[in-house]
Amino acid sequence: xxxxxxxxxxxxIARHGWHVLGxxxxxxxxxxxxxxxxxxxxxxxxxVVFGLDHxxxxxxxxxxxxxxxxxxxxxxxxLYEGLIEHFACKIRPVAQASHxxxxxxxxxxxxxxxxxxxxxxxxxxxPDKAGLFPDEPGCNRGIIALQPVx
Length: 150
Hints:
By secondary structure, this protein is α+β, with helices and mostly antiparallel strands. It has helices spanning about 5-15, 40, 55-70, 95-100, 105-110, 140-145; strands at about 20-25, 30-35, 45-50, 80-85, 85-95, 120-125. It has one domain (about 5-145).
């Protein structure tokens, strides 16, 4: 039996192809959002975005989902244009060790539908004003604090 939150996730995936879950900031984590359901519906890794307003994170993830549906892929690490106005964004794979702490409902859904393959996820990183990313030397410390590299 699914609880109300789980049922909403399942219903959104059936209706839209994925669900976006926002996570509030805590003492040790900035706010973030991630997709649930892209692996089974789009054959694409789940997507996680840190440090932005939940609505903006959801907009970015939904835009990426629509583009994946049209044939674009964000599976490979690298720079991608057109996701945030005026900035290229970086895509990196998310280490399996980070899944439990950051992708709980994606892991739940993956088990719920009995996926045989392991859960995969990618992280979208956005740059500081100088164009540097949190995984690059010299990036603004505030930006690094908002985007833990998974």
